Amino acid sequence: MSPFGRYRRLAFAAPPVIRRVQERLLQEQIARAAALSPFYRRRLRDVKPRRITLDSLADLPLTDKRDIERHNDAFRAVPPAAIVDIVLSSGTTGKPTRIMYTESDLERLAYNEDLAFTACGLTARDVALLTCTMDRCFVAGLAYFLGIRRIGAAAIRNGHSSLESHLNVIREMKPTAVVGVPSFLRKLAIHLRDSGVNPARAGVARLVCIGEPVRGEDMEFLKLGADLERLWGAKVYSTYASSEVVSTFCECTAQRGGHQHPDLVVAEVVDARGRRVPPGTAGEVVLTPLQTEGMPLIRFRTGDVSFLMEEPCPCGRRTPRLGPILGRRKQMIKLHGTTFYPQALYSALDEIPGVGEYYLTVGGKDRLSDQVTVHVALERGSCRAEHIREKLQARLRVRPRVVIESEDAVRRQVYTPRSRKPVRFVDLRKNAS
After folding, report:
1. Which of 176, 207, 234 is the last residue of a domain?
2. Checking DSSP bridges between strand 177-180 and strand 206-209, what pairing results, if any?
3. What are the residues whose beta carbons fall under 8 Å from the beta carbon of 364, sequence distance 6 or more?
């Protein structure tokens, strides 16, 4: 019998109960890592796991992707024969790092996605179209498939197929939910509409969005999220996950941020010095997964910037919620005295009529300011580069260089076979990693 599920309702418990269970699982995780992982055996040799609390967790050192790159095998806490699945995660130098899962970790992964899908309203009666791949050593497609199986729903694993293939699946199999990258789901809806199929009448009630934010810092929909709800006539749910920590933060039916599953992960948000920041303050997301076996991690720096919300959720869960991902810590841009993340620029571009596909290149010879170029393909020929610059100035107080290019040229950069997500940020700075 699977050990996962005994705390299925923990998120609805009183805060002292949640805290007590979380601290016990945290202590067990630290003890396991310190005893069985060569990396943590060295790093935590002076730590007394049973004395660690949720508050004192912040005293332990942080772990980042460079640690996993440099000491990949030293993170493994089980014999090699116990590893049953290996996925690859992009490293800071571009060299993939191996993330190793045991059978127990895969059961945990299925339970994790079960909680996420259930929170946003999926049941055994649903039919879910998965537009994310299970191949190329990615974990996302596998995770969603295992989660759909666990809740008893039917999965259609159409993966990275063509728009026409997905259109045929929707016509013939009538999925009630679709899981995928939001920009692709918008493109799919437009393809359906142009092919004579009204996506709002196709029977899809829920879109579970992965890989890109659909909300802004104010928790309101970005244009992308609003477009999805309008085109599909469906509820849009945002989700955030990481290969390294195999834990998901998914919105519930209240659509007010991604819930933390208290028996699977402890979430912190820290400043540039690694110190915790108050709820509502943006910083780097740091995660400590609980009940992992193959590669336990303690205080893993995700590199993603967001914030935690602790006010009660209408759904009744009593755990903190993670806000939208505002950007990557290393992608922060400095332009003539203004600092911002690429997502802010994407949001502004999405609201300019006539702007189609786009990407950014960021270089830097000047320590005080980056060189930012916005490469834009137009949907209609009436939009000029200077008009785009003026709109960006009004919205963000910056005037980056804007270059109008052909749609084919921009799409070749954005939709590359090397990445499962659209690539809209090209970092040419010397310290880019």
Report:
1. 234
2. parallel
3. 370, 371, 428, 429, 430
Q: Which residues pair with 250 in a beta bridge?
A: 239, 259
Question: Residue 270: enclosing H or E segment and its boundaries?
Answer: strand 265-270
Torsion 295-299-300-304 (CA) sign: positive
Predicted model pTM: 0.91
Instruction: For the chain, state the CA radius of gyration.
Output: 22
CB 93 within 8 A of CB 433: yes
Contact criterion met (CB below 8 Å) for 140 and 187? no
Look up residue 91 and give its two tokens: 């490293």
Residue 287: exposure state from Cβ atoms within 10 A (0-12, 13-18, ≥19):
buried
Q: pLDDT digits over 28-50, tens only?
A: 999 999 999 999 999 999 999 99
At residue 432 the predicted structure's pLDDT band, cuts being 50, 70 and 90, is low
User: Do 56 and 116 reside in the same domain of the chain?
Assistant: no
Predicted confidence (pLDDT) per residue in 183-235, tens digit: 999 999 999 999 999 999 999 999 999 989 999 999 999 999 999 999 999 99
Instruction: Dump pLDDT digits (tens) for 379-412.
Output: 876 789 999 999 999 999 899 999 999 999 999 9
Pair 227, 247 in one domain = no
Residues 169 and 223 grouped into a single domain: yes
